[in-house]
Amino acid sequence: MKYDTIIIGGGLSGLTAGIKLAEKGKKVAIVSLGQSALHFSSGSLGLLGQVGDKEVSSPLEAMKELDENHPYRRIGIDCVAALAKEVKPMFAAAGMSLDGDETVNRYRLTPFGICKPSWLTFSDFITFDKNEPSKIKKCIIINFKGYLDFYPDFIADGLGRMGVESVQATVSVDVVERLRKSSSEMRAASIARLLRGDVIDALAAEINRVADDADADTVLIPAVVGFDSEKPLAMLREKVLRPVYCVATTPMSVCGTRAQLLLRRRFEQLGGIYLLGDNVASGKFASDGRIKSVMTTNLGDDEMEADTFILATGGLFSRGIVADPHKVYEPVFGLDVRAPEDREQWYERDFFAKQPYMSFGVSVDEDFHPLRSGKAVGNLYAVGAVIGGYDALKEGSGAGVALLTALYVANMIK
Question: How many helices (H) and strands (E) does the chain have?
């Protein structure tokens, strides 16, 4: 099997690169083991939310303060700005609407009522400008009876700190009530699969009833609407007499799952091949150090050949980088990893401190070619969290790095 490009990893970074290359007419295959970090999305894509101890309002301007080895600095700030403008059209082509832009962060409400800086936010969700008074005067926070992955008290507390009055209510819809027979089934994805058609009508009637009683001007609900499309939420918004916004639940994430499904669908519509539930076990190298082919667990001895390869396997969370008691390593190709040999330097004993291991990743050259025994692998590129050189958790930059490194590399591949 011969392709122009084979991408190892089918999360946000891998799908972004795959879509961009498929749009250019390339024959592309993605090998994906399964669930990615995208399934746990909070509803926002972060570009840069914090540098050091300072919260960032203007991400592009703040990038000047980043270390030169940071992926954004490797790409170049002007290039980052240009690539960032490609993201909303890409998601729109896949059937998803995003609000925001790269010049200024807005703030999205987390499941625990804390406001976090965000770059782009799925249109389901409410966002705020921290420098302006909220346009919401009184909202009603509505939960489903028996649903435990949504925390109205925390959300009300967070809104109160912004001067927004709120009241709480629960609603009950017959089909959702049936899920309560098994607590393991009362989850966001299970609810979202049921909220369509006539069920939306019933839910809208319940929301209108409790919102009228509360005399609220805005409705907040858990993000459990629209499993594989934005249409159910659009229908609900048409039928509810007040603006309706979602607040993220604790994982799994309905909007993240939707994004994964729709981006994959877009990739396949463009002619891409998506091998789900398979894993690249190893690669064969030619005498010049370039990769000739890869072998997967499911295909066995049948090799997958390509002119170029992209490593998008993620960081420690996704096991794109692996740590054992003695070393940190990249498991597919045995690439060089930027990590101290001394285990004591991997972490800080203070759990809440900035942790060094969060920035571990493969060593790359200026064109994002990974190094193997100190030499760049000329037809292999690394994108997203597997690169390292940044702390996605502290910076709020994980999605931005995933998207923009993928677009940057896809643009370089001719």
Answer: 13, 25
Q: How many CB atoms lie within 10 A of CB 145?
A: 12
Kind of pairing between the strands at 138-144 and 218-222: parallel
255, two tokens = 């909007």
Checking phi first, is residue 112 left (phi over 0); if not, alpha (psi -120 to 50) or beta? Answer: alpha
pLDDT tens, residue by residue, 43-81 = 899 999 999 989 999 999 999 999 999 999 999 999 999
Residue 97 to residue 101: CA distance in whole angstroms: 13
| Sign of the CA dihedral with 259 first, then 392, 329, and 253 last | negative
Q: DSSP states of 38-62 as a string?
A: GGG--SEE-S--EETTEE-S-HHHH
Mean pLDDT (the chain, rounded): 93
CA atoms of 173 and 196, how far apart (whole Å): 12
Kindly report whether the global pTM for this prediction surpasses the value 0.90.
Answer: yes
Secondary structure of the chain: what % helix, strand, coil (to 5)? 35, 25, 40
Cβ neighbour number for residue 340 with a 10 Å cutoff: 12
Tens-digit pLDDT profile for residues 265-303:
999 999 999 999 999 999 999 999 999 999 999 998 899
Q: Minimal CA–CA distance to 189: which of 222, 227, 156, 151?
A: 227
- What the block records as the tokens of 324 is 């054992």
Neighbours of 408 (CB within 10 A): 23
d(CA 152, CA 167): 9
Q: Quick one: pLDDT at residue 184?
A: 60
Residue 141 tokens, joined: 């926070």
Cα separation, 330 vs 377, in Å, equals: 14
The CB density around residue 412, as the number of other CB atoms within 10 Å, is 12
In whole angstroms, what is the distance from residue 105 CA to residue 46 CA?
9
Owner of token pair 């028996």: 146
